[in-house]
Amino acid sequence: MKNEKIRIDCKFNTGNNALRLLEKLIDYYKRQNAKFLTVREYLNVYKR
User: Fold this and answer.
1) Per residue in 1-48, pLDDT tens?
2) Residue 3 in domain
3) Following DSSP, what letter does each residue of 7-34 receive, concatenated?
């Protein structure tokens, strides 16, 4: 196995693992009472 190539989804946390990590991250920010915005809302609030 030492010389086998690592699958791209294992290297960069894509697929189901990425979704699980994203869910954990969103849950964390929800517990911090973060405000979630769409890109359009973000631009309206923060564009200079």
Assistant:
1) 577 788 776 778 888 988 999 999 999 999 999 999 999 999 999 886
2) no
3) PHHHHTT-THHHHHHHHHHHHHHHHTTP
